[in-house]
Structure to design on (969 residues):
């Protein structure tokens, strides 16, 4: 399943809420948590990370991974945390609105 | 905030670590080492593309891409050097010409005058009719009394100065010389802000008769003639035979753009000297400096009211009815403005035509590169990226073109200034570099936009998957219409330019074919000015004139020699004489020409009836010859030969009628004139003519020697030949005609190439269609006419619009034209015919190609 434009940023921020993580870890986490539904195109993951880093929502540092590989770890910044709250709210409203349109009775 | 950007290596490292970790994970899930690596790579997609996307996020990428685009562009040029060279040359010539002419226009017309608050400076003229315009024929010089009245009563002006360009003889004994001078009032130099390095300028007392034997030197003349002697002030020099005290030397930075005739004055003298001088000149040009916040119209009406109040007509001058005021900066460039603007417009047209060709060329090139562009789009270039690439190429082209154009401009400017036959005001001042460079930058940008934007937009409109499939250039649906639009524009501009050049050419031919009424070959001319001090009496002047003519006749090789107060086409002060026809009451005025020696024979004047004045008439005071205009104006009722005129006290008989000459200039018709022996009308200015086949230089040397023997204080000035004077009359017209003719020729050439190129491309793109037509039975003639008809449509519509534009714009040329109206039907018709033939015939070759299409081959190729 392909992602809606802009949702990848939200998912990355959400994943980083639990602590710093490297790119591969983020992709893996999203896939696992979505029960293998959302397959992250790694080609777009890194530009997204790049973008978020430039906006100052995440920061990056080289570190060592669990199995002892050098990796670049991303951490949510204060600004990123605020952004996550905002975007989560926005996303919920969007889903609810789309849901009401698709199944009017249920709500 | 400035953050150090990540390097590409850092990014690549991150990707590598990602791949390694992904492979680790897959191996944990039980895959083999190789499979895990491959799977990891697969999940990542195109590594290069990712890295490129990272790279593009870099701020400097536009520079990278720009350099990349420039490299691509260079490759294109190397691949097709001929085309690149032709394009560059086209742009270089087009812009070079414009930059060169702009530099002239800037220096002569636009550059602010080198005076403080120059906007306050105005030139004041009188007119004889209250509704009179500003044309040179209507303008009159106010006389000294009027100016004095204005000066003492006007509230609109800070200062009113009068001046008159003059020539004066400096020195006595060894080598007297005649130099340009400025006769000025006390206000004149201060009004222009002139400062002195030594001494001072004129005081009010020094500009009155009796106390006015003083002069001020220009810095250049002080340096050249007196070696910059700092003790000079207070000494006297001989000016027109009289000792005059030097009271000051002007500062080197003072530029006199106002008094300048051909050259700026070397020396200034009080204008009062002219009124007491031999010519009794009492009028002058008037320069005013407005008070702050006084408008031109307010000042003008104030002076007009004052003039009427005063009701002055002190010296029998024709009375002024109105006053006209013009900004000084408009006046300084007035004489050359129409010609320069016409040249500028012509050069602009030429550049437009050249740019149209380049646009067509680039469009064709871009269409040919659709496959390349389609591939670039397919592997990820956005439309903006492609547009940028094409625009960069256009910009690179125009920058290279304008840079080479600047070199061309330098040479063209030099050539133009040195070949320009008239005087270009203020051309030596320089200081135009900034404006010229700015103009060049604007030109480069505009032309790049003109020929770059269209191809860029058209070709990138739809990502060309179709061209990928066919592997050929294919066509762009709207491109042909745009190309027709360009052709339309090009032909319209060309026809306007061609008509302009045609009008000038016809005017020039008319001017040249004017019968001057005298033979101007082998005529040596020069002038001598007799100073008032020794030659105030008529007898002295007559005695000198007689011996002067005698000694000129003795020059070896001289066939005839004569002198007069003013030669045809040479602009001295024309003498007006009052007369009445015996038996009639009215008093009239006519131009007086005093002659001595065989004047009629020397100039080869043709008589209509009666006889000419000869050397035998020299002493007489009772015979005159009149011209045809005179007869038409005043002697219609009686037979002219034998009529008696009363000039002053004594009557004189008309012994002959001479044919009219264009004495005032080729463009001006003759006016009534009376020729009389020098004894009847003496003059302190003596123009001599010597008819001789001997080279003028030898005559000059001989004449100088003769003059020195007669009177060593006199200088031989304005040495020339009549041929040169006549040539000077048509030289400017010839220059304009040749220049615009060249422009038009190049324009027609460019337009031909343009039309031809577009039609060839159209035919090439439709080979398939023509193949089918021919296969289905169309005759060759049909296909031929189809191409000609469709190909010539745009140019012919352009031609019609060009004719309309030319008929509207022709008025711009009005002042340059002679004997031709701006809508001359012959010029319009012949220009239109020429262009139509050129356009239609440039369809011919491609049309022939079209009908030779091999139907089978065209269909097979598909």
């Amino acid at each position: 399943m392909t992602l809606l434009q802009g949702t990848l940023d939200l998912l990355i921020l959400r994943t980083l809420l639990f602590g710093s993580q490297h790119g591969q870890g983020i992709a893996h986490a999203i896939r696992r948590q979505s029960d293998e539904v959302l397959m992250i195109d790694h080609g777009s993951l890194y530009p997204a990370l790049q973008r978020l880093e430039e906006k100052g929502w995440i920061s990056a540092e080289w570190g060592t991974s669990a199995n002892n590989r050098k990796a670049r770890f991303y951490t949510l910044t204060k600004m990123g945390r605020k952004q996550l709250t905002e975007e989560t709210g926005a996303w919920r409203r969007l889903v609810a609105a789309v849901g009401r349109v698709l199944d009017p009775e249920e709500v | 905030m400035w953050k150090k950007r990540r390097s590409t290596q850092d990014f690549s490292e991150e990707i590598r670590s990602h791949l390694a970790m992904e492979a680790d994970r897959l191996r944990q899930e039980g895959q083999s080492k190789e499979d895990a690596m491959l799977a990891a790579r697969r999940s990542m997609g195109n590594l290069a593309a990712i890295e490129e996307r990272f790279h593009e996020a870099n701020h400097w990428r536009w520079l990278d891409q720009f350099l990349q685009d420039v490299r691509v562009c260079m490759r294109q040029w190397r691949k097709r050097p001929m085309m690149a060279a032709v394009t560059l040359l086209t742009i270089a010539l087009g812009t070079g010409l414009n930059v060169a002419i702009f530099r002239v226009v800037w220096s002569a017309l636009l550059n602010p005058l080198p005076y403080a608050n120059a906007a306050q400076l105005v030139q004041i003229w009188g007119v004889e009719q209250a509704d009179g315009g500003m044309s040179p024929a209507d303008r009159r010089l106010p006389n000294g009394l009027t100016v004095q009245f204005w000066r003492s009563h006007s509230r609109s002006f800070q200062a009113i100065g009068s001046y008159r360009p003059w020539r004066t003889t400096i020195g006595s004994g060894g080598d007297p010389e005649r130099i340009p001078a400025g006769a000025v009032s006390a206000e004149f130099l201060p009004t222009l802000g002139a400062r002195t390095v030594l001494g001072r300028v004129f005081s009010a007392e020094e500009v009155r008769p009796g106390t006015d034997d003083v002069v001020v030197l220009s810095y250049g003349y002080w340096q050249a003639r007196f070696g910059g002697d700092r003790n000079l002030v207070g000494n006297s020099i001989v000016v027109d035979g009289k000792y005059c005290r030097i009271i000051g030397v002007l500062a080197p930075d003072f530029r006199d753009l106002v008094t300048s005739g051909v050259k700026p004055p070397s020396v200034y003298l009080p204008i009062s000297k002219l009124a007491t001088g031999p010519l009794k000149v009492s009028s002058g040009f008037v320069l005013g400096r407005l008070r702050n916040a006084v408008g031109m119209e307010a000042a003008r009406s104030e002076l007009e009211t004052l003039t009427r109040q005063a009701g002055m007509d002190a010296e029998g001058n024709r009375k002024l009815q109105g006053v006209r005021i013009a900004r000084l900066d408009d006046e300084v460039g007035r004489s050359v403005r129409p010609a320069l603007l016409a040249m500028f417009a012509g050069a602009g047209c030429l550049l437009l035509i050249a740019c149209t060709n380049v646009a067509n060329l680039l469009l064709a090139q871009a269409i040919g590169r659709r496959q390349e562009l389609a591939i670039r789009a397919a592997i990820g270039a956005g439309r903006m990226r492609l547009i940028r690439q094409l625009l960069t190429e256009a910009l690179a082209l125009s920058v290279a073109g304008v840079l080479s154009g600047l070199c061309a401009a330098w040479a063209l400017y030099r050539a133009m200034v040195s070949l320009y036959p008239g005087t270009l005001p203020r051309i030596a001042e320089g200081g135009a570099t900034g404006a010229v460079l700015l103009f060049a930058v604007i030109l480069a940008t505009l032309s790049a936009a003109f020929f770059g934007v269209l191809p860029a937009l058209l070709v990138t409109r739809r990502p060309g998957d179709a061209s990928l499939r066919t592997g050929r250039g294919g066509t762009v649906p709207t491109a042909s219409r745009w190309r027709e639009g360009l052709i339309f524009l090009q032909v319209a501009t060309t026809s306007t330019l061609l008509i302009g050049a045609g009008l000038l050419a016809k005017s020039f031919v008319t001017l040249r074919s004017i019968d001057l009424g005298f033979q101007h070959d082998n005529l040596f001319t020069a002038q001598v000015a007799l100073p008032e001090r020794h030659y105030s009496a008529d007898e002295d002047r007559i005695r000198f004139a007689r011996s002067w003519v005698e000694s000129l006749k003795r020059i070896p090789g001289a066939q005839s020699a004569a002198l007069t107060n003013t030669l045809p086409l040479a602009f001295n002060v024309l003498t007006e004489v009052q007369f009445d026809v015996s038996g009639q009451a009215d008093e009239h005025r006519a131009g007086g020409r005093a002659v001595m020696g065989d004047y009629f024979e020397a100039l080869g004047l043709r008589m209509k009836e009666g006889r000419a004045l000869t050397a035998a008439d020299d002493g007489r005071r009772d015979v005159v010859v009149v011209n045809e205009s005179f007869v038409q104006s005043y002697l219609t009722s009686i037979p002219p030969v034998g009529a008696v005129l009363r000039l002053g006290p004594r009557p004189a008989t008309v012994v002959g009628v001479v044919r009219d000459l264009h004495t005032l200039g080729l463009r001006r018709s003759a006016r009534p004139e009376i020729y009389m022996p020098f004894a009847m009308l003496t003059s302190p200015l003596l123009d001599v003519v010597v008819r001789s086949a001997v080279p003028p230089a030898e005559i000059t040397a001989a004449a100088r020697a003769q003059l020195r023997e007669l009177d060593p204080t006199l200088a031989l000035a304005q040495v020339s030949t009549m041929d040169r004077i006549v040539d000077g009359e048509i030289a400017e017209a010839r220059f304009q005609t040749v220049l615009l003719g060249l422009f038009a020729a190049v324009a027609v050439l460019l337009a031909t190439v343009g039309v031809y190129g577009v039609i060839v491309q159209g035919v090439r793109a439709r080979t398939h269609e023509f193949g089918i037509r021919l296969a289905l039975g169309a005759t060759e003639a049909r296909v031929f006419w189809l191409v000609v008809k469709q190909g010539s449509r745009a140019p012919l519509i352009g031609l019609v619009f060009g004719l309309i534009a030319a008929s509207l714009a022709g008025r711009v040329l009005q002042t340059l034209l002679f004997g031709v109206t701006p809508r001359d039907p012959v010029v319009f018709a012949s220009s239109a015919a020429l262009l139509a033939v050129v356009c239609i015939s440039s369809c011919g070759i491609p049309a022939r190609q079209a009908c030779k299409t091999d139907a089978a081959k065209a269909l097979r190729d598909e």
